[in-house]
Write a structure and sequence with these properties.
The complex is a heterodimer.
Chain A: H1 2-6, H2 8-33, H3 39-57, H4 61-82, H5 87-108, H6 113-121, H7 129-148, H8 150-158, H9 160-165, H10 170-188, H11 197-211, H12 215-239, H13 244-273, E1 292-293, E2 309-312, E3 315-320, E4 323-328, E5 331-334
Antiparallel strand pairs in A: 1-5, 2-3, 3-4, 4-5
Chain B: E1 7-18, E2 21-32, E3 36-41, H1 47-54, E4 62-67, E5 70-71, E6 81-84, H2 98-103, H3 118-130, H4 146-159, E7 164-168, H5 176-191, E8 195-199, E9 212-217, E10 220-225, H6 231-235, H7 261-264
Parallel strand pairs in B: 3-8, 3-9, 6-7, 7-8
Antiparallel strand pairs in B: 1-2, 1-4, 4-5, 9-10
The chains are: A alpha+beta, B alpha/beta.
Chain lengths: ~325, ~270
C-alpha cells in the first residue's frame, strides 16, 4: 500500500491535487459571490478546444489550454460587461462552440475519444513532471492573488458601484477573476478534468457557507475542504481504477451532504434564540388607529410559527383566530 | 465653470441619456463645503441619476462634473468620498460579516497587499457603532433585517471618514428606528464639517439636518433652495395601501406642500445663483 503512494506518478498527482484543491475553491468563492457559479464550467468547455489544439499541433495541451481558456475568460467578462440582455445566450454559444471545436480538432488530430477523456475527467497517470511544476506554479500564483487581494476582490464582487467610488479599477479586478478562473480550470484539468472542475470550485464553497458567517472564514474553509476532497480523490483512485475527477467531486458533494443538515440546525437554533424583530416602532407615539390587543399569547409569532403570515406594508401580520396580529414590541396590534 | 475653491461638487450643464432616453437635461448645480443637501423628486425624475453622475458612475453626454474643484476624469482622491448606493440588500452570494462589509470602506485609504492597521480597525468599529450595530459586528449581513443592512452600507461609507458623503435613497423601506440611527450618524459627520448629498423619498428623522433642498422633475432642477416639505407627502397621494403616520415625528409636517410641481416649479436657470 505504501508502495503505491510512493510511486512517482502518485506523488506528482498528490502534489498537483493539493495545489488544485487550494486554488479552485479560492477562485470559486469570488465566482459564487458574484453569482457566476457556473462560469468555471463554461471556461472548462472552452478549454477543451485548447487541449485539442495542443494535440493537433503536437505542443503541450496544458499550455494551449491555458492560453485558450484565458482568452475565453476575458471574452466572457467582456460579454458580461457589454451585453446586458443577451449575455447568457452569448455565453452559451461560446461554451458549446468550445466543446464542439475540441471534439472536432481531436478527431482531426487523429486522437481517440479516450485521449480526450483524460482531460475531460482527469487521470493521475497522465501527469508528467513538467506538467506538475506548471500546475504548482500557476496554482500558487492564483492562491497568492486570491488570498492577498481578498479585500479588493471582495469589495468588487460585493458591490461594483461602491468599489468604483472607492477608487478601485473594477474592470481590472473583474478580468483578473476571470483569468484566475481560466488558469485554475486548466490547472485542475489533470486531476479533476475539464467537465468536473467547476464542481471543485463551487461545491466546497457551498459546503463551507453552510457553517460560516464571514467571508474570510468561508474562503479559507472552502480551500481546506477542497484540498481534503482533492487529496482523498487522488488517493482513492490510486487504489481503485476510477477517474480521480469523479471521486474528488463525489467526496466534495459528500461533504456538502454532511454540512447541510448541520447548517440547517445551527441556523434554526440561531433563529429561535434571536429576539423577535419587533422593536422598530416602540419608542414613538402611537397611531390614532392603533389598538393594542389585550389577549395573552402562548408563543411569539415568527417565521414558521404555524400562523399564516401576511405582508402588510412595512411589517408582517399573523392571522390568529380569525384576525390579523402585528407584533409591536411587547404586545400585538390588531390590524 | 468658475469653480470656487469652496465648492465640493459642481455640475455644469450636466446632460445624461440612458439607452437613448434623456435622464438629465442640462443640470447646473453647485454644492459648497459643509452643505447638507436633500435631492427630492418623484420616481424617474432623475434624482438617482444626478448623484450617480456626481460619482462618475454614469457618463455625461454633455457638460462637466467637478469634485473638490477637480474635473471628474482627473479626480483620484476617492478617499474623500463616501458613497451609499441604492441597494435592497448588503448581502452577496457568499456570507460576509458586518465588519467585513464595513471594512471595504477603508479600501480607498489602504495600500494594496497591506494588512489593516489599527487606525483602520478603529475606524471600522467606530462606523459600526455610529449606526448602532456594535453588537452585530460579527453577524452575517444576510441575517440582518433590511433596515439593518442599509445601516451596514451607511457604516461602510462612514468608515472611510469622508469629506463628502453621497447617499442614494438610504432609507427606502427602512424602519423608523434605523432612520433615527442614520440621522444620528449623519449628524456626527455634519458636526465634523462634512458635505452631504442625500437622495430621499422621505426625510423622516433626517429632516432637521437638511440645509437645502433640490427637487428634480423630468431631469431638470425644479426647485433649489431652503428645505421644503418632504417628497413623501407628495408620493403618499399615489400610495394605494395604508400609510403609517407618526404625528410628532416629522418636524417639517407643518410645512406641508401638496405638490412640488405647480406652486414652486420654476424653469431651470430661473433660480438666482
Amino acid at each position: 500500500m505504501i508502495d503505491i503512494l510512493t510511486n512517482p506518478f502518485v506523488i506528482r498527482a498528490l502534489l498537483a491535487a493539493v495545489f488544485t484543491g487550494l486554488a479552485a475553491p479560492a477562485v470559486g468563492t469570488y465566482l459564487v459571490q458574484r453569482r457566476l457559479a457556473l462560469m468555471g464550467d463554461g471556461i472548462g468547455h472552452i478549454a477543451v478546444t485548447g487541449v485539442a489544439l495542443g494535440l493537433l499541433t503536437g505542443t503541450s495541451p496544458t499550455i494551449t489550454a491555458v492560453i485558450v481558456a484565458v482568452l475565453g475568460g476575458v471574452v466572457i467578462e467582456v460579454i458580461r460587461e457589454k451585453g446586458r440582455t443577451s449575455g447568457d445566450v452569448a455565453l452559451a454559444l461560446l461554451f458549446y462552440g468550445g466543446i464542439a471545436g475540441g471534439v472536432m480538432l481531436t478527431g482531426l488530430a487523429g486522437q481517440s475519444a479516450a485521449t480526450l477523456n483524460i482531460y475531460l475527467f482527469g487521470s493521475i497517470t497522465s501527469t508528467s513532471a513538467a506538467d506538475v511544476w506548471v500546475t504548482i506554479a500557476l496554482a500558487a500564483v492564483v492562491i497568492v492573488i486570491s488570498v492577498g487581494l481578498s479585500p479588493q476582490l471582495f469589495a468588487v464582487a460585493q458591490d461594483q458601484e461602491f468599489a468604483r467610488v472607492a477608487g478601485l479599477n473594477v474592470r481590472v479586478y473583474n478580468v483578473l477573476v476571470s483569468v484566475m478562473a481560466a488558469v485554475t480550470v486548466t490547472v485542475a484539468m489533470r486531476t479533476v478534468g475539464l467537465l468536473l472542475v467547476s464542481a471543485l470550485m463551487v461545491v466546497p464553497v457551498a459546503t463551507s457557507q453552510q457553517l460560516t458567517r464571514g467571508f474570510r472564514t468561508t474562503l479559507l474553509t472552502a480551500m481546506g475542504l477542497g484540498t481534503l476532497a482533492s487529496l482523498g480523490g487522488v488517493v482513492t483512485s490510486s487504489f481503485v481504477d476510477v477517474a480521480p475527477g469523479a471521486t474528488i467531486v463525489l467526496l466534495a458533494l459528500a461533504g456538502f451532504i454532511v454540512a447541510w443538515p448541520i447548517g440547517m440546525l445551527v441556523r434554526r437554533r440561531h433563529r429561535l434564540t434571536a429576539p423577535f424583530a419587533a422593536d422598530a416602532e416602540d419608542e414613538f407615539s402611537l397611531d390614532p388607529r392603533h389598538s393594542a390587543v389585550p389577549e395573552s399569547h402562548q408563543h411569539e409569532h415568527g417565521e414558521d410559527c404555524g400562523h399564516h403570515a401576511v405582508r402588510h406594508g412595512d411589517h408582517v401580520d399573523y392571522v390568529h383566530d380569525g384576525h390579523r396580529h402585528a407584533p409591536h414590541g411587547s404586545h400585538y396590534d390588531e390590524h | 465653470m468658475n469653480t470656487a475653491p469652496d465648492t465640493t461638487i459642481e455640475i455644469d450643464d450636466g446632460t445624461v441619456s440612458l439607452g437613448g432616453r434623456p435622464v438629465l437635461r442640462g443640470v447646473d448645480l453647485a454644492v459648497r463645503h459643509g452643505e447638507v443637501v436633500a435631492v427630492l423628486g418623484a420616481n424617474g425624475s432623475g434624482k438617482s441619476t444626478l448623484v450617480r453622475t456626481m460619482m462618475g458612475l454614469v457618463p455625461t453626454v454633455r457638460g462637466q462634473v467637478s469634485l473638490f474643484g477637480t474635473p471628474l476624469e482627473r479626480f483620484h482622491d476617492w478617499r474623500r468620498i463616501g458613497f451609499v448606493p441604492q441597494r435592497a440588500t448588503a448581502a452577496g452570494g457568499v456570507p460576509a460579516s458586518v465588519r467585513e462589509v464595513v471594512g471595504s470602506g477603508r479600501l480607498s485609504r489602504r495600500k494594496i497587499l497591506r494588512p489593516m492597521r489599527s487606525a483602520d480597525r478603529t475606524a471600522v468599529d467606530d462606523a459600526i457603532a455610529a449606526v448602532g450595530l456594535a453588537d452585530k459586528a460579527k453577524d452575517g449581513v444576510s441575517t440582518l433585517s433590511g433596515g439593518q443592512q442599509q445601516r451596514v452600507l451607511i457604516a461602510r461609507a462612514l468608515a472611510g471618514q469622508p469629506d463628502l458623503l453621497v447617499l442614494d435613497e438610504p432609507t427606502a423601506g427602512v424602519d423608523v428606528e434605523s432612520q433615527q440611527a442614520f440621522a444620528d450618524a449623519l449628524r456626527g459627520l455634519v458636526d465634523r464639517g462634512a458635505t452631504i448629498v442625500l437622495v430621499a423619498h422621505e426625510l423622516g428623522p433626517m429632516a432637521p439636518l437638511i440645509g437645502r433642498s433640490v427637487v428634480m422633475r423630468d431631469g431638470r432642477v425644479a426647485y433649489d433652495g431652503p428645505p421644503i416639505a418632504e417628497a413623501a407627502e407628495i408620493d403618499h397621494r399615489h400610495d394605494p395601501g395604508h400609510a403609517h403616520h407618526h404625528p410628532g415625528l416629522q418636524q417639517t409636517g407643518s410645512d406641508y406642500a401638496p405638490l412640488v410641481a405647480s406652486p414652486i416649479d420654476r424653469t431651470p436657470g430661473a433660480e438666482d445663483r
